[in-house]
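Weekly sync, protein design subgroup
Attendees: M.S., D.O., the rotation student, P.L. (late)

Item 1: inverse folding check
M.S. brought a backbone from last month's batch and wanted to see whether the design step gives back something sensible before we order anything. D.O. pointed out we never logged the input encoding, so this time it goes straight into the notes. Structure tokens as presented (212 positions):
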């Protein structure tokens, strides 16, 4: 399982030190929030560009914004390796997936906890990643939502049945216990925020999380 540390939880005043403390992670997860799709506002593509200059990790960018189609190009230009947008935030998800992939960037889609996982069925053949939100998007430190596990299992079964190529990613309330449970359900990538950044030995914890 891949651990993708959520950069939202880091100390932005010492970026290079923070990157070094999680350099065992192959991926970095960026939560971009606009204050409209979700209540909070975070950073934009300028932060992604800044970190790209000091990190060679895989950049996993999660857009929690309305009308993501208007901003995709900005994140492609600054070096996103994967761009995930929300099904609920755009009218033509398939068109947006194709636009992202045309730029040789991987395309992901995410759904909020209240959205049915079956609503993604028509998009599954085209996706590189599906992000299941196991908390309400926009706030850190929430408790893991148990209903996320059947969604992961559903996507895992579909992947095996039809030989799809997407990764299943889970974000929200991840610790050593929930990491083990999502892995057993078929998860490939875990996004870990405060649980990881509150640790005194982050690189060691990354290895533990990836091998639960």
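Designed sequence read out in the meeting:
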């Amino acid at each position: 399982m891949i651990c993708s540390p959520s950069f939202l939880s880091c100390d932005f005043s010492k970026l290079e030190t923070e990157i070094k403390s999680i350099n065992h992670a192959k991926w970095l997860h960026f939560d971009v929030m606009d204050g409209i799709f979700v209540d909070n506002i975070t950073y934009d593509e300028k932060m992604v560009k800044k970190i790209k200059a000091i990190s060679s990790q895989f950049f996993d960018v999660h857009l929690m914004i309305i009308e993501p189609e208007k901003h995709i190009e900005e994140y492609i230009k600054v070096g996103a390796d994967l761009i995930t947008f929300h099904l609920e935030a755009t009218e033509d998800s398939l068109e947006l997936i194709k636009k992202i992939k045309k730029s040789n960037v991987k395309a992901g889609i995410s759904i909020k906890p209240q959205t049915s996982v079956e609503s993604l069925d028509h998009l599954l053949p085209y996706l590189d990643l599906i992000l299941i939100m196991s908390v309400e998007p926009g706030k850190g430190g929430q408790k893991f939502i148990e209903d996320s596990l059947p969604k992961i299992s559903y996507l895992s079964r579909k992947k095996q049945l039809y030989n799809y190529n997407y990764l299943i990613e889970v974000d929200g309330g991840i610790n050593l216990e929930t990491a083990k449970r999502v892995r057993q359900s078929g998860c490939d990538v875990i996004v870990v925020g405060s649980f990881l950044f509150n640790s005194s030995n982050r690189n060691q914890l990354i290895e533990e999380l990836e091998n639960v």
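Discussion: Helices lie at 15-21, 45-52, 72-77, 93-102, 148-162, 176-185, 194-197, 202-210. The two ends are 9 Å apart (CA to CA).
Action: P.L. to compare against the previous round before Friday.
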